Every structure is written in C-alpha cells, then in structure tokens.
Amino acid sequence: MLSSFQDILSRSSIFRDRNTLSPHYIPSTLPHREKEISTVMSAISPALKGEKPRSMFIYGKTGTGKTSCVKYVMERFEEMKSGTARMCYVNCRIYNTRYRVFHKLMKDNLPDYAKTGYGLSFFYEKMIDLLDANAINMVIVLDEVDMVRDLDDLIYTLTRANDDLKKGGMSLIGISNRLSFKDRLDPRSKSTLYETEIVFPPYTSTQLKSILEQRVKLGFSDGAVDDSAINLASAMSAQDNGDARYALKLLLRAGEIVDEEGTVVISERHVTAARKSVDEDVSIEAISTLPQHQQIVLYSIATLSMDGGRYSKLNGNTDNYLLSGEVYETYLKNSRNFKKEARSSRWYREYLNELEMLGLINTVESGKGMRGHTRLVKLAYSPAKVKSIIEKNILE
After folding, report:
1. Helix-helix angle 227-239:268-288, to 10 degrees
2. What pLDDT does residue 226 have?
3. Residue 35 CB partners (closer than 8 Å, separation 6+)
4. Per-residue pLDDT at 179 exceeds 90
5. Which residue, 90, 198, 291, 337, is most buried by CB atoms nearer than 10 A?
6. How far, in Å, CA of 271 to CA of 250, rounded?
7. Which of 281, 300, 286 is nearest to 391 (CA)?
8. Rounded-to-integer distance, Cα 146 and Cα 114, Å
9. What are the sequence ranges of the domains in the chain?
10. What angle do CA 282, 225, 209 make, to 5 degrees?
11. pLDDT band of 276, cuts 50, 70, 90
12. How far apart are CA 345 and CA 329, in angstroms?
C-alpha cells in the first residue's frame, strides 16, 4: 500500500532531534578540546583589540574536531560584536580556486559586488578598500585548504594584502586532514602561513564514549540507546583513527535501523549492522575528497587490480597485490589520459603513504624470490566501485 507523507510523519521514532547527531552540529560544549579551543582563541584575540592576529594552521585526521572547534570559536568571536574584527569561513571543497575563494569573501562582505563577471583583481581591490577604510582585521578560515588547486597563488595574494593595507589586516586559519600537506607548498607560502600550528590528536575510546553520551541525550528519546551500544560504537571508532564523525554516523544509522524495524532500543546488534553501510559511505567520501593526483594513483591501482598485475601473473598470486613500479607506470599513462601533468616518483611515494593512512590501500615489502626489494600495493575496496567513483569525479 502506498504511504502518504502524513503516514510517514506520524510513525513513532526513537529520535528526539536527528540534527544533533550531525557532524555539523556545534554543541554548547566540545568535550576534550578545551586546550585546542583556548589556543585558537588566543591566536585570533588581537583582532578584537584592533591588532593583526597571527596566521595558523590546524592539522588532524577526519573526525578529530578541527572544524567544530573553529566554528565554536567563531560563534564566541561574533558574540563580541566588534565593528573592526571579522571572521569569514570558506569551505575549500566547494570554493577550490583562488578566484572562488575571493568570490565567497565578496558574497560575505560586499554582496553588491559579488558577480562572477568581475575579475580577481577587482575583488582584491574592493576587499583592500573595505579593510582599509574601516580598519578591519579579518581572519579568513580556509577549511580543507589542501583542496584549493592554486593554493600557493591564493596564499601569496591573501598575505600580500597586508603590504597594501595602511589600516587593518588579513590573517589565515588553514585546516587540513593531511599532516604531510605543508611539504607540498612553496617555501614562501610555508613561511607566511605557518606562524602557529596545532595538531588535533585522535579521540580515545573513553573520549568518544563521553562525546556519544552527550549527543545521545540531545538526539534520542530517554532510554533509547543501550550503554553497550555506546561502548561498541566508541570502540569501533577508536579503532578507525579516533573518528568522532564515524561514531556519530554509526549511532545515527543504528537509530534508523531501529525505526525501520519498529523496535525501541539501539543494541550492539544494531551498531554492528550499521557498520557496513557507514563504512561504504565513509570510503566514498574519502575517495571523492582526495586531491586529483591521488585519485589518479588510486584509479591506476583499481584498473590494474581488475586486469591483474604482473606480480599476480608471474607468481600465480591470488592476493591481488601489485608492483609499486607497475602502478607508477600506469599512473603516468593515466595522467596523460586525464590531461594532467604527472608528478615525480617522490610525490608518488608520498601519495601511496597518504592513501594507506586513509585506509584505502594496503602495502607490504616484497619477500625473497624477487630481484631486490619492492613495495607491493593492494586496494582495500572493490576495484570496480573505486574506478566508478573516480571516473565520476574526474571526468564530469
């Protein structure tokens, strides 16, 4: 029988407020991040006194609270209601070029001029005029800053603004999931951006449990989540790099399963059932947000895995490991096919390290029986699915 919206909305649910289980929800307190919040506040507080704050860079794996902490600080900053201090947030996954970042700044600060027909130099001059005329100290938050394609140019342009300003100033907060990210920057960009650095450590199982307990009270009806389910979700997430976002997704999906079943309490069984669905979602997101060259390396591993690499053919190996050198050769070919300039073998090795850190591939050193030692590479997910995701990202 066909359901109506009224039927769907009238069904009972164990959720009190699903929004509080979103990683984008900022609670009134952020457990276990008091020190990091204090450091960010101290770094930007000069803006509230009419002085230029220090620029800073925030590192940490996905789900360690980087963005939540900065947005929490932004809320406290705005409560000060300063006429000469501003913070602007830019999601660099969306605004992923220098032009788009400046367009976002115009939309937030000078919306009358936020037309895409204007050039970058026009946007730049208008921003300089705004800050100079009002002695504004602006802090620009670049979230997922490593997604900006022409990042060196962006950092140069933003920091150059301070040379062109008589009053006011411009500072940056860069946020990245990748600890090795700064190694890819031009030395001049490093020296201007990395005045202060913070590394957000992964959450422990105990910390994740207290975070989940806070969100369970906000998001679910009383008694709707068994303690054993919270313990299991915390333990699973602690194993997965201490990722609070993963823990929240597990409970959200487990709650949806309970609602679908028509039962009333989330148990360990529901968390276990939720894990498969969440793992797939997380892998798709991880692949989709990779820089393009890492996607091409992963694409090369996927296509070789589907065809069978030289190592498997020579050794009759069924584990589907690939020779690192063979993957690099395929990466060079695919870079040409995608009309991208391939990076050196040194960068390729860094890409492999990051893909392994993200859990997308596994690598081992070759044992005896091969001439010398080489690195063997294996995909952690379905090659066909990985290939499909990347083709959609790069070709569209």
Report:
1. 30
2. 97
3. none
4. no
5. 90
6. 6
7. 300
8. 24
9. 34-199, 204-288, 292-395
10. 60
11. confident
12. 10
Instruction: Quote the pTM value.
Output: 0.81
User: In the chain, which ranges are continuous DSSP H helix?
Assistant: 5-10, 34-44, 66-79, 98-109, 120-134, 151-164, 187-193, 205-219, 227-239, 244-261, 268-288, 292-307, 310-315, 324-337, 345-357, 383-395
Which region holds residue 145: left if phi is over 0, alpha if psi is between -120 and 50, else beta? alpha
Band of residue 193 on the pLDDT scale cut at 50, 70, 90 = low
pLDDT band (50, 70, 90) for residue 115: confident
Is 198 in contact with 37 (CB distance < 8 Å)? Answer: no
Q: Please, are residues 274 and 280 in contact by the beta-carbon 8 Å criterion? A: no
Domain 204-288 has CATH 1.10.8.60: yes
pLDDT score, position 64: 94
Chain segment 329-358, per-residue pLDDT in tens: 999 999 999 989 999 998 899 899 888 877
| CATH of region 34-199 | 3.40.50.300
Amino acid at the residue 264 = V
d(CA 78, CA 31): 21
CA distances to 163, 184, 325, 334, 342 from 338, rounded to whole Å, are: 39, 21, 20, 6, 10
Specify whether the CB–CB gap between 241 and 202 falls below 8 A: yes
- Nearest-angstrom CA–CA distance, 43 and 117: 36
**What mean pLDDT comes out for the span 28-37?**
96
Written as six digits, the tokens of 325 are 């050198």
Total number of residues shown for the chain: 396
Please work out, in degrees rounded to the nearest 5, the angle formed at the alpha carbon of residue 384 by the alpha carbons of 378 and 389.
Answer: 100
Task: Determine contact, residues 47/139, Cβ cutoff 8 Å.
Answer: yes
- pLDDT-based confidence at 252, cuts 50/70/90? very high
CA dihedral 178, 241, 279, 274 (to 10 degrees): -140
CATH number of the structural domain 292-395: 1.10.10.10
In 10 A of CB 205, how many CB atoms? 16
> With bands split at pLDDT 50, 70 and 90, how would you rate the model's confidence at 86?
very high
Looking at residue 212, its pLDDT comes to: 97
